[in-house]
Amino acid sequence: MLRAAWLIFLNEFRLLTKDRVGLAMLILAPVVIIAVAGFSLGNIYGVRPAVNAYDLPIVDQDHGAAARAIITALSRDPAVHLERAQSVAGVRALVGRRSRVPLAIVIPAGITAALEAGRPAELVLYVDPIKRIEVAAIELRLSRMCTEITARAQDNARTRISAANAELRVRLERLATLATTARSAAEHFRRESLSRRDAAQRELDARLRSATAELAAQTRVAAERSAAAANSELERELAPRRDAMNAVRVYLSALQASERDFNRWLANLKAAAGSHSADIPPPPAFPRPPTPAQLAVLSKPIEISPPATALPEPALPNLSLASLPTPSVAIPDFDAEFKPLLAAPAPTLPGALGWTELSAGRGPAQANAFDQYVPGFGVTFLLIGMMMGISLGLIDERDWGTLARLRASGAPFAGTLLGKLLSRFVIGLMQMALLFAIGRWLFAISLGSEPLLLLIPSAAIAFAAAAFGLIIACIARTHDSVMPFGTVVSMAMSAIGGCWWPMDFEPGWMRAFAQWLPTTWTMQSFNDLMIRNLPASAIVWPTVATVGLGIAYLIVGIVAASWIYD
Amino acid sequence: MKTLEATALRKSYGDRVVLDGVSLDADRGEIVGLLGPNGAGKTTTLSILATLLAADSGSVRVAGLSPRTDRDAVRRKLGYVPQVIALYPTLSALQNLALFARVHGAGHGAAAAASAHALEAVGLAPRAHDPVSSLSGGMKRRLNLACAMVHRPEILLLDEPTVGVDPQSREQILLTVKRAAESGAAIIYSTHYMEEVERICSRALLIDHGRVVAAGTVAELISLGGRQPRMEIAFKDLPTDGWIAGLEGVSEIEQADAGGRIELELASLAQVSEILDHARQSGGQVLEFSVHSPNLSDAFIALTGHALREDGGGGQ
């Protein structure tokens, strides 16, 4: 058994040496992938100055100290290459259109004033949402820069506030001294005022008492004089009424006497008459009552017209006081101390500098990650499928003998190739369409404003990939060689072409090389349609480039395949 | 004008000459064998005839047409059975046949009918819908043949169509080829089984190291070997000496060995029973005997100095 194992062990190495492509792929494949990933993702672990620096357009609308500080700080950063611009629209157009420009900065007017007033202020970043990682890398640097600028400004402000505090303290001490002086002067004035007020009060009391006594005497004389005149008038009015009253009294007395006489007479009469009392004549008439005029006099109201008594005009006492004394202590000049304090602005710490993100294109600033990965990995697997399908299909048919049989059966080799490429093209197109549908359903990816437009770059890459599969079939001519070779080439094309990460990670030479790959243009089309939400016109040139590369691949592939397989 | 004519075909890869002036022809209803060891140049010859390979020099005419100028027309007249089983393993037998029928220009309905007929001809109708990968090696060979015949070609080129098949399939294949010839096809039958050539070919070419060493009818070729029929007899008791003296044209090649075996050369096979009678009458008691008729293999050995089954090492 050990002998068999040893022989098989040796034979495996012998077989490996016969498979040169497989042997090369053992080392070449990982080296290619390592190189692509290493060069592409190198910036994640730090940007190499002057090699991978990002272009950073900036528009200064503020022209203040803060703007100058920001521009100075950015111009010192080796990771970015600052480009001054005047137009916001211009820098927005640069973002996404030009490589190495993941974002543009606009310093809005008033940012310096806002910071000095202690308000937060924000830069405006127009970002390409596709280059999220590069944007994040630059934003990290911007964050550090903003923190430094804010901290430096706050240090300066603290120094100024400390100086202002010291000056304020001196002024407050001077004010305290002035206040003490003013307080003693005010006390002196208060005491003086109280003394003078008491004296004036006493004088006023005396004057009022004298004036009141004189006024009371004058009033009493006038009242007595007026009462005498009233008594005289009343007596004149009462005399006739008294006479009338006497007449009434006499009458009433007479009436009373007559009545009594009558009553006696009548009684006597009746007694005398005995049974003839009924024959007694009517009694005599009583005296007449007082006249109505007399009675009217009795009821006439007594009208007393008081005599016009002229009361004496009292002489007003002289109540004017002697003038109060002027305080002898001068009031301190507070204005000289207060006005500078009031005039000086309130010392404040400057506000924090930050930023806000806006999309440079028409889509949102924050893209759905699947908007990148669905088309990216879709293209990767499309490439793998195409390369495997075309290459292995051709090699299988050659090995099976069906390729020769088809040719002998009257099917031209070109026709066989065309049929194979066309079928794979349709399969690839359907694969991409299905992936987009699944991506929409599972991951809510954006399909842009016109989802059907996605079929254009899908068709272009399906065509180019099919043509490139033909080239692979001509390079790796065995079943075993196609697998590693096709996989590595597919993965490398995908990685370099921006299917897995933004191309701006890559060094310049790799980006230049990527221009010759259909994956690059296809991903640009997908990004423009799905993430940047651009119209159909944006994908015209990328599609032309992809199809052009596909045609070149097809020509090379057909020539090589005809030579090798026909 | 022959249906198929090839003249002075020459093909080389670098310094290695694979074909060196091979000429052959076949007419309607004729099966021409191409007999030679592996590497003799049979496949290269058939590839050139099938228009899959261009000869360095020489000419080919198919029904009067040249493959160089009328390749498509020539291909429509050809049916080619490659040495490998050139079938799509995941497709069914019927699908394979229909594909090649349609490639040859048949419409959908005609292709289906022709496919069914071809399947019937090779005895695979019951397996019509089975994937090729599930068929036995012999069935695949039969289907391989059917695919070349599905469009009823004027010329059938068969490159070792019975390699590795079971006897039943071999018989079916040979029968199908004979029927094709009977229906008017001109057939080139490449093989290194001389028995097959002797059975079905009217003419044959013996090819070795890229050259035709002999051509003619089977009988002519056998005669080129210059050998007579031979008979080997094992005796329990040897006959008396001179027991063959009365038999005309019979000579002893090897005298009796320790095991009592004698090898004789005969004038004709008709003398076998007479020889046995003679031996018994001379006191010999025969245990067993065998007769060897001269064949193409003998002729090949006589002409080339090596056997058919040895590797010729000169072909593709």
Describe the structure.
The complex is a heterodimer of chains A (566) and B (316). Chain A is mainly α and 566 residues long. Chain A contains 16 helices and five strands. Among the domains of chain A are: 199-343, no CATH class; 369-565, no CATH class. In chain A, α3 packs antiparallel against α6 (132-273), α6 crosses α8 (334-343) and α12 (455-475) packs parallel to α16. The model of chain A has no long low-confidence stretch (mean pLDDT 81). Chain B is elongated and about 75 Å long. Chain B has a six-stranded mixed sheet, sandwiched between helices. In chain B, strands 11-12-10-13 form a four-stranded antiparallel sheet, with helices on one face. Chain B contains ten helices and 13 strands. In chain B, β6 (155-159), α6 and β7 form a beta-alpha-beta unit. Helix content of chain B is 32%, strand content 27%. The chains are: A mainly alpha (566), B alpha/beta (316). The A-B interface holds A 400-402, 404-412 and B 47, 50-52, 72, 75-76, 78, 80, 82-89, 100, 103-105, 147-148, 151.
Fold blueprint:
The complex is a heterodimer of chains A (566) and B (316).
Chain A lengths: L1 H17 L1 H22 L12 E7 L4 H11 L4 E6 L2 H7 L8 E5 L3 H6 L4 E7 L4 H142 L18 H8 L34 H10 L9 E7 L9 H32 L1 H7 L4 H31 L11 H21 L3 H18 L11 H7 L3 H14 L8 H26 L1
Parallel strand pairs in A: 1-2, 1-3, 4-5
Antiparallel strand pairs in A: 3-4
Chain B lengths: L3 E10 L2 E11 L4 E5 L6 H8 L7 E6 L8 H7 E4 L11 H11 L4 H14 L15 H13 L5 E5 L7 H16 L3 E6 L2 H7 L2 E6 L2 E7 H7 L5 E8 L13 E4 L6 E5 L6 H10 L3 E8 L3 H9 L12
Parallel strand pairs in B: 3-7, 3-8, 5-6, 6-7
Antiparallel strand pairs in B: 1-2, 1-4, 8-9, 10-12, 10-13, 11-12
Helix pairs in contact in B: 3-4, 3-5, 4-5, 5-6, 8-10
